[in-house]
Amino acid sequence: MPKPDQSLSAVVVSGGKQYRVAPGDRVLVDRLAAEPGSSVKFDRILLLHEGDTIEVGAPGVDGLEIEARVLAHKRGPRIEVLRYKSKKRVRVHRGARADLTALEIMPFGRNKKDESDEEAEETPKKGAARKPRAKKETKDTKEPKAAKETKAAKEPKTAKAGKK
């Protein structure tokens, strides 16, 4: 569900979990293999809310990546797990802390154009030119092959008759 007070938000997937983010948001996600200060790109965007338009991906929104800056690696709060069976003297007490990564979401959206996008539009791609198609064989080129096959087919019959 998009945030009602902001005109731009998205739902991204990280670590199998979904997060609703907007530019400038700071979110805690499961630990990512990235150094603090580096940037991370999310390419799985399930929903994009931009102004009055809502774009739902199937399974993801095409042509959109959201970039986030890694702020720090943190640990979550301690979670205690107690397992107890009455009258059996079974009591297991365990504690755990989640490893998390703090991210700051950078500006994103369909209307945002990078300088690199403009340069890419100006210069054509190297492999853009198509190779010419192979020419199809015509009847003129097929006839000599057929004549050779008929002669070859006749010769083995005579050779077999001579061996018997």
Overview of the molecule:
The chain is an alpha+beta fold. The chain has a domain at 1-109. It has helices at residues 115-122, 139-163; strands at 8-14, 17-21, 26-30, 39-42, 45-50, 53-56, 66-85, 90-105. The longest helix is centred in the C-terminal third of the chain and has 25 residues, at 139-163.
Shape: elongated
In angstroms, what is the radius of gyration?
A: 33 Å
- Largest sheet, described in full? 4 strands, antiparallel
Residue-averaged pLDDT, rounded? 79
Provide keyphrases for this structure.
4-stranded antiparallel sheet; single chain; 2 helices; 164 residues; 41% strand
Which helices and strands occur, and which strands form pairs?
Blueprint (H helix, E strand, L loop, with lengths): L7 E7 L2 E5 L4 E5 L8 E4 L2 E6 L2 E4 L9 E20 L4 E16 L9 H8 L16 H25 L1
Antiparallel strand pairs: 1-2, 1-5, 3-8, 4-7, 5-6, 7-8
What is shown here, in short?
The protein is an alpha+beta fold. It contains two helices and eight strands, in the order E-E-E-E-E-E-E-E-H-H. The protein has helices at residues 115-122, 139-163, and strands spanning 8-14, 17-21, 26-30, 39-42, 45-50, 53-56, 66-85, 90-105.
